[in-house]
Structure prediction request, 436 residues.
Amino acid sequence: MSAAYIRRLADSTAASTALCLRQTLRQQWFLLILIPFGLVLILAPLLPVASETAAFRLLVKIALGAGSVVLSLGIILTGSNTLPSEIRDKTIQRSIGSPGGRLPALTGRITAFSLLAAFCAFLGLAGTFLAFTIRAGSSTEFAAASRQYISTAAEKHSYRIVNRPSNTRGILWVTEKAPEITWTFLCDSPAPDGKLTFQITPVVASSVKTKAKITFDKNCRKCSDSRTVMLSDNLPLNIEFAEILEHGQCHEITVKRLPGSSPFGFHIGKTELGNEKNGVSLLTGTRPFGANLLAAWLIVWAKLTFVGSVAIFASTFLSAPVAGALSLLLYLLASILGFLSEFAQSIGKIGTHCHAHIHHAHQGPQELTFFQNIIKTLITWFAKLFPDLSRFDAANALVWGRAIPLGFVLSALLYFLPYCILLWFASALILQRREF
Prediction:
């Protein structure tokens, strides 16, 4: 490509981007979606809750959960309607008649919807700050709930298991044979206000809450301060210990099953925020909530860009209603892919979700039928090839006080980029061969 052609392509892309943005903002779909999104963020702080901590968690879930869904619907409805509306209004020749040919018409749309996704993410960020400001006021409890801690994963350090049961199958179980589990940590950063926080995420083998005793050891000496807590299945729990710590100290946390409690365990290899595993993490240091919220909305922007790419791809060969329906279907599949993966892993297991782990821990895997093998293989390969929107859920990190690592944000951006490039390439091929 010559420099002159690249300049013409850049100028044509800029013109196509401006044209696409004007057409998009004139569409009623996008404005109609922004209205309920704004109402949700304005009314959410006024909802009655039991405590300010619960209010904080509710706001995070609404802003990043429901808010991103509403914005995704707006991107889908708008993106699937731009090209078909130009064909219907016979204005498509203005877009494809640029000096660069049909390529600027596509690159302009890609740029326009990437900017539109960034605009939506900015509105979400600003709206979330406004909602938190309305609710927080002078509440110290709300401010404490919004504190974000930097985590040190247990997997990066040694862990010691007393009487570890055989055939644990991916879960460290605390049972009669193994009444307690001890993890060893190294404090990489100083704890804020002299408080050391451990966060545990158990797997409980019963729907009834289970009691456990949490003991903190400093330099292998038993600390007088212990906690008796109630554990629920896959529900993170923060336990604070008031200790003056020195940088580089080694610490131990012991989780002991109390008499009369049902067995529970911790996942081996379960990923939390990309690198947190084993269900136990040490939380040290703090990060401003605003920086964490910005990271969360950057991840939402990556998702919105992918959703817009899907809508653009569908609009190149389908009418607006069909393209919108297809884009919505693909969006729903990408959103529930995590659930489908868990369903595939549970095929052939004995009993319910809660008790399947226990049966597997002591009885070994069940032999699958031919039909179950086919279903499990299809779902597994589909989950590997199809993008998983639930893989990068920043809301849970904010709810439970986990600072979002920069590596997690970068991995989210790099995860969706190949899918977007593939969709753009396919859209370019279709647009190049289509007759208008």
In short: The longest strand covers residues 221-231. Residues 397 and 404 are 7 Å apart (CA to CA). The radius of gyration is 25 Å.
